[in-house]
Amino acid sequence: MNNYIGKTCPFCKTEFQEGDDIVICSSCDMPHHKACWIENQGCTTFGCMGTIKSPDDNSTTVTTTKTSYEELPLSSYILCTQCGAQNLPDSAFCGKCGNSLKKTSSIPADIQNNPSNTNSNVYTQQNSNHQTTYQNNTYGQQNHYSQTFSAIDEDVIILVGKKQEYYIPKFQEMKTQNTKASWNWPAFLFSMYWCLYRKMYGYAFAFVGITSLLTFFVPTIAPLLLFISYIIFGIFANYIYMKKLEKNANKAKTMNEPLRTQFIQKHSGVSILALILFFIGWCDFMIIIIILAR
């Protein structure tokens, strides 16, 4: 690790100092602060798809790539609680975002096995103080990022998929302030398409139905009514999305493996395919309408 002291992290542009948590790209050997790797969700080298490895290990990577996933049963996957990526069972860190996958207890076995041990409370307090000190010494942005995530169900975090750094703080803010209002620009500007992209298919088809009915029955004021509905949806879209994720997360908790993992994979993240299929279907529908109108 001493070989990297004084060199510059390509993400934050600051020099590595003694005691910094440094990781190395397995592909291009570019050193990064671990917090910077996580924030960037990968190597900063353009086009590089490497995973992270220890600076003291020049041969063995800490994480593994997706090329071997097909050789394992679905139940063997480890889902990252931060970004939702799949990792092999022996992965110590997520290959996408660098999040720690293996959480081992730091409490000695004799204390774990004897909860009544009078020393357990002292040890727990010392361990808590140590963790607090460590968190205060980490990067402020990364520490804030972790604290924001801590109040949200881990399954909800996984189900969000892309743009967790946007939605999770929004969810946290609504829970803290006990409000349902939280503005979402994409939901306002592209309401129906945003719903499809975020796998909220019921709401997407509801928009199609409402748009069709208003256009057919009240064509003169339909644009105004639709504009008002888009504003209302932009205000409450984050809350609607959060409740949908929480519903799926609670449903996943009632399942056993591998059904639970399969369910989370199916309902997490976004769907570009849904947008493509909708566009094709909408074009076909318009062609039929034009043909029938002739």
Topology at a glance:
Layout: E1 22-25, E2 31-33, H1 34-40, E3 52-53, E4 78-79, E5 86-87, H2 109-113, H3 119-137, H4 140-150, H5 154-160, H6 164-177, H7 185-189, H8 191-197, H9 201-217, H10 222-253, H11 259-267, H12 272-293
Helix pairs in contact: 5-10, 8-9, 9-10, 10-11
Please characterize this protein's 3D structure.
The chain is mostly helical and 294 residues long. It has 2 domains: 2-87, no CATH class; 152-293, no CATH class. Helix content is 53%, strand content 4%. The protein has helices spanning 34-40, 109-113, 119-137, 140-150, 154-160, 164-177, 185-189, 191-197, 201-217, 222-253, 259-267, 272-293, and strands at residues 22-25, 31-33, 52-53, 78-79, 86-87. It has a 3-stranded antiparallel sheet. A hairpin with a 6-residue loop joins β4 and β5 (86-87). The relative contact order is 0.08. Residues 58-71, 103-112 and 126-150 have low confidence and may be disordered.
Approximate strand percentage:
under 5%
Tally the helices. 12
Global outline: elongated
Computed over alpha carbons, the radius of gyration is: 24 Å
Number of domains: 2
Please report the total strand number as a whole number.
5
Cross-sheet strand order for the largest sheet: 2-1-3
Largest sheet: 3 strands, antiparallel
- Helix/strand class: mainly alpha
Let me know the average pLDDT. Answer: 76
Helix content: 40-55%
- Report the oligomer: single chain
SSE succession: EEHEEEHHHHHHHHHHH
Provide a compact summary of the structure.
This protein has 294 residues and is mostly helical.
